[in-house]
Amino acid sequence: MRAPLFVGVLSMVLDFHDQRDELFNELHTRPFPVIDTQARISQLAVLHAGKDIERESYRKKALEHLCALCSRYSINPPAEDASCYYQDFGGFELRWERHTEFSTYTFVHKLSSEPFQRTALSLLPDEWLNDLPGKVISGLHLEIEKAPEELPVVEDLRGFFEGHRLLSCYASNRQAQVWTAYRIHSDNMGRFLVYNNSLNPCQTGRLVRRILELETYRMVALLSLPLARQIAPNVREMDQQLATVIQQLTDIKNLDDERRLLGELTTLSSKIEQIISDTNYRFSATEAYYRLAMSRLEELREQEVCGLQTLNEFLGRRLTPAYRTCETVREDLDDLSNRIDRASELLRTRVNLTIEEQNQDLLQSLNRRSKMQFRMQQAVEGLSVVAISYYMVGLFKYLAETAKSTGLIGNSGLVTGLFVPVAIGFVIFGLHRMKKSIKKS
To answer: Is residue 128 very low, low, confident or very high in pLDDT (cuts 50, 70, 90)?
Structure first.
């Protein structure tokens, strides 16, 4: 009796993360429906707008559109921040789920009729369907019937699919049989027919959800295929331009050629990076949706029926090549970007080597000039010594002649001659002191 009290006290003591409840309840969002046999299901997958502002505007329009339907049937509307909404409208059940790029509207009802004669969409107001916000990327009718005692004849079932060639498989360990043509029929919708052998309502709901998600993820995954086909020629053209530039690397003659080729590589690189920036999200989303579609396909646990092509075989031959095309273009873009980077690095290395050679030649030229200037400086210093000494001796000669005329000395020429080496030494010493003071400063 004390355990619940202890747990309650413990929960008040622990400091839980602010988003703990939201993250925990994420496991219980978008539950599978519980569906009985003789059910008619219709689903519409609607793409959102591209930009964030447009997506927010679409979210508001979608909620207003749902609220209009709820008001018509006097049903409680969804919350403003709701990402999913499940409600029984009396004659049908509505399941609305908002994802990152699309929203799904699933309608479930029980109408007694031949397969695909009356669908779930026939119960909805036409004006409400016409005002559905967004672009429908996937539309599907899925009907569940009780399995007949004898295996249906393929030719008899083709009438439900407007005469198209059929695909079929056993699902969920042969507890159900799935039929489809994977065609868009005259009502612009796809069709699936499920014969239930022994599935309970919960198992049937899980099977229906897998089929609906498989179709939705398959269609959204293919959104990048037209984009891949559009940019593939540009990628091949830029690949040829890169090959031409690489071939010219061996024919470089001067720095102008190197700069020209580097400019071409820079232009190619900017184009590639722009394409990668524009397509990276779409290609990444394609990979994620493709893996989700393949996981839903594996969860069906298919088995072959009467030698007919299964869903896995059909999609493996058609969906997988389309996905590989997108992946190939994406890998080509990344490879081309890496090759341009390597070529640019190689060319920059050549440019740096050329600049270093030019700098080395410039340094050698400066060295030669400095030597020449030093020699000229030495010559100028020698001439300066001679000139200054000459003027000093000339001045001293005037002094000597003046001293001779006054009788202070007897021979002015001898005194002047003796002063010559003294003057030269004095000039050399003065120049030496001046050079030392300049170096110190």
So the answer is: very high
CA distance 42 to 108: 7
**From the centroid of its chain, how far is CA 397?**
94
CA distance 39 to 120: 9
pLDDT, averaged across the chain: 85
- Give DSSP secondary structure letters for 104-145: EEEEEE---SSTTTS-GGGGS-HHHHHT--SEEEEEEEEEEE
Alpha-carbon span 357 to 163, nearest angstrom = 78
What CA–CA distances, in Å, run from 361 to 110, 179, 254, 365, 372? 91, 81, 15, 6, 16
**Given the DSSP bridges, would you call strands 190-196 and 135-146 parallel, antiparallel or unpaired?**
parallel
Taking the C-alpha atoms of residue 174 and residue 99, their distance in angstroms, rounded to an integer, is 32
If asked whether residues 43 and 96 sit together in one domain, one would say yes
For the chain, the domain total comes to 3
Please report the pLDDT score of residue 103 as a whole number: 92
4 pLDDT band, cuts 50/70/90, is low
Print the domain residue range for 181. 28-221
pTM for the whole structure: 0.76
> Is the model's pLDDT at 9 over the cut of 60?
no
Provide the b/e sequence for 395-408 (b: ≥16 CB within 10 Å).
ebbeebeeeeeeee
Instruction: For residues 186 and 107, give the distance between their C-alpha atoms in angstroms, rounded to a whole number.
Output: 20
Does residue 180 contact residue 190 with C-beta atoms inside 8 Å?
Answer: yes
Tokens linked to 396: 């001293």
Q: What is the pLDDT of residues 25-48, one digit of tens each?
A: 767 677 778 888 889 999 999 998
| Rounded CA separation 399/403 (Å) | 6
Q: Is residue 5 part of a domain?
A: no
- Is the same domain home to 407 and 330? no
**Three-state DSSP class for residue 323:** helix
Residue that is last in its domain, among 306, 328, 363: 363
Do 104 and 144 share a structural domain? yes
pLDDT in tens, 165-224: 999 999 988 999 999 999 999 999 999 999 999 999 999 999 999 999 999 999 999 999
Pairing of strands 84-88, 39-47: unpaired
